[in-house]
Amino acid sequence: MSGVRGPNSALTEFLRSQGINANEIRVRHEQRQRKNAAEKESGSNNTDEDKDEKEEGNEQYKKLDIDAIADPEVAKVAKNAALKRLDEIDDGSAICAGCYNKFTVTVYSKPAPDLENAFLCRFCSAESGKLKKLQSKPKDLGAKKKRKKLAADILELRFMTSPSLQDICIKVIADNIDSIEELGGITTDSFNKISRILSKNRRLLPTTMQMFLRKDVEVLEFWDCSTFAIENYNLIPAMCPNLTKLTLGMCGQMDDDNMHRIAELKSLRELYLDGPFLIRKSAWLDFIDLKGPHLTSLFVKSVYRIDSEVLALLAETCVNLEVLSLERLCQLTDPSPFCLLGNLKNLKHLELIELEHEAWSDHAIGEILNSIGGNLHTLVIKADTGTLTDKTVEYIKLNCKSLRRLELVNMLDITDRSVEDLFTYWSENNVPGLKQLSLDKCVNVGTNALKCALTHSGASLENLNINSLMHVSPDTIDQLAELPALSTLDMSFIGAVNPVNVYKLSTSNSLKQVYAFGNIRLSGMPLPTGVTIVGTM
Amino acid sequence: MAPRYIKITSNDGFVFVVPREAALVSETWRRMLSSESYIESETGELYLDHSAEILSYIIDYLFYNLNYKDTVGQTDKEFKIPPELALQVLVAADYLNV
């Protein structure tokens, strides 16, 4: 044979380097086939030869295949003998309980699953490990996924197992919004639901927003306008001249011109603006001047350019306002203009949320409440630490006698005593009970105040927030289970809350949701049925 | 005696027969079938002014709701509606209050 070779494939080269010759393989294969054919003709001949050849390599671990022994008597004897040998462990070697072969026991040898003092050889333990993995892994993963999903569902308040068909349709529409050209024939309610889902998924775009603009629309909600440009805002008043209620959230790019055009909407009564920081003071003044007397509801959030002059004009002009919410107005660093809000004689709903530290004063709140406190149905005060004191609570006590909803949030300086006084006074003077009460993060309010609140409003209370009231005792929380109308309760971050409280609460007929974030004693407890507990780990 | 099976006719003339409890899932139909002032409560025959294609999705949903209303957490089995029909089904669902 000459040393010269032609071009070869990588496989041929590799096989040659390993001393494997295709010719030899073919010859052997033919021989075997011939032999098999001959055997078939001659009947059943033993094929042990082949078997021996194969097993020669790992003779040391050759399997003594008891199960394969045909004669049951012989098999029994062999098995018994093997099992006997299992016990006799000397010089570190033993008989494997899986395959009955001799092997050396090491620290890594696995014990046999159903026999004492018996071990598995390394082949059998590998096999059993594989089996175990096969049996356990997918099941575990499935359960884990399910648990996670359930926890996520509860956190997102998706308890409704079968969502309504309307919601399913709205979701499908929102998912395919890009391919829809026009929305028609659906109710305002569904209409705004679609808009809300789009906002939530941040897919309300200049192209999709135009679908919502129709001549007959009266209520329009765009909760995420961050993608809108100036011309998009102009489309709203141009295409929906009959708007009575307009909501624009995150409307950062809105400018003076847009505001002027919105002011020209004849039937506009309710306006919600969140973050229109480009609108200048002059535009605010013009808008309030023109539109003020018609507005019944105004929400303004996160604006820098509203100053005392604008607020004074608002208090003077918007005489028909029933709902007013002012949140994060950074340029108002003085409490005096707030006193003027007392002019709004029709006001029923007042929210003052996260104003500047300097803007809060008991005196200003007192001025407002002395003047209009008696009309208010809703009062929400979300103050800054170290500003409002017990005096504010005193003003509320004396003036606000038709409140249905009271929220005092983040007022660290009000004491248990003052809130106790408030509810005792209201009980004595037959003030009707509250439906919603929030003392969120008023950490110095404790058990006595809560007890008095329950005596006064217990029968009507639907919504209670006692988040972070660390001085509240567990037995007071037990009492909450007896409230006839209570449906939502937030008792997060109260260290004393224990599993017994939760079981008591779960016996309540009306209670549907309980928020229990940061209640360390509840971690790991099995959740009772009948009420949804949000926030436990 | 209230009929046990309800006949629902679509505007193109197809008739679907469903058990009473399935029809009761819809708030609108429930009122029609349980109040005596409606003739539907006697005859057990309802009419929906939508095509059979839409109605079949509505009826699918009625059974889906019956099946899954008592399970906790969200079901793995999602109710599917083709996007091109979603708007029409929404209009019908809005009327039926489901």
For this entry, give a set of tags.
heterodimer, A: 537 residues, alpha/beta, 13-stranded parallel β-sheet, two-stranded antiparallel ribbon, 19 helices, 17 strands, B: 98 residues, alpha+beta, Potassium Channel Kv1.1, Chain A, three-stranded mixed β-sheet, 5 helices, 3 strands, globular
What's the arrangement of strands in the largest beta sheet of chain A? 5-6-7-8-9-10-11-12-13-14-15-16-17
Instruction: Give the termini separation of chain B.
Output: 26 Å
Work out the strand percent of chain B: 15-25%
Helix content of chain B: 40-55%
Distance between the ends of chain A: 78 Å
Structure, explained:
The complex is a heterodimer of chains A (537) and B (98). By secondary structure, chain A is of the alpha/beta class. Chain A has a domain at 64-131. Chain A has helices spanning 10-17, 22-42, 48-55, 72-87, 122-155, 165-175, 188-200, 206-209, 230-239, 256-263, 281-291, 308-317, 336-339, 362-372, 390-399, 416-428, 447-457, 474-479, 499-506; strands at 93-95, 102-104, 110-111, 119-120, 219-222, 245-248, 270-274, 297-303, 323-329, 349-353, 378-382, 405-409, 436-438, 463-465, 488-490, 513-515, 532-534. A 13-stranded parallel sheet of chain A has the order 5-6-7-8-9-10-11-12-13-14-15-16-17. Chain A has a two-stranded antiparallel ribbon with strand order 1-2. The longest helix of chain A has 34 residues, at 122-155. Chain B is α+β, with helices and mostly antiparallel strands and 98 residues long. Chain B has 5 helices and 3 strands, in the order ββαααβαα. Chain B has helices spanning 20-23, 27-34, 40-43, 52-68, 83-96, and strands spanning 5-10, 15-19, 45-48. Chain B has a 3-stranded mixed sheet. In chain B, helix 4 (52-68) packs across helix 5 (83-96). Chain B starts with a strand and ends with a helix. The model of chain B has no long low-confidence stretch (mean pLDDT 86). The chains are: A alpha/beta (537), B alpha+beta (98). Chain A binds chain B through residues 146, 149-150, 153-154, 158-159, 161-166, 168-170, 172-173, 175-176, 179-180, 183-187, 189-190, 529, and chain B through 58, 61, 64-65, 67-75, 79, 81, 83, 86-87, 89-91, 93-94, 96, 98. Chain B: InterPro entries: ELC1, SKP1-like, SKP1/BTB/POZ_sf.
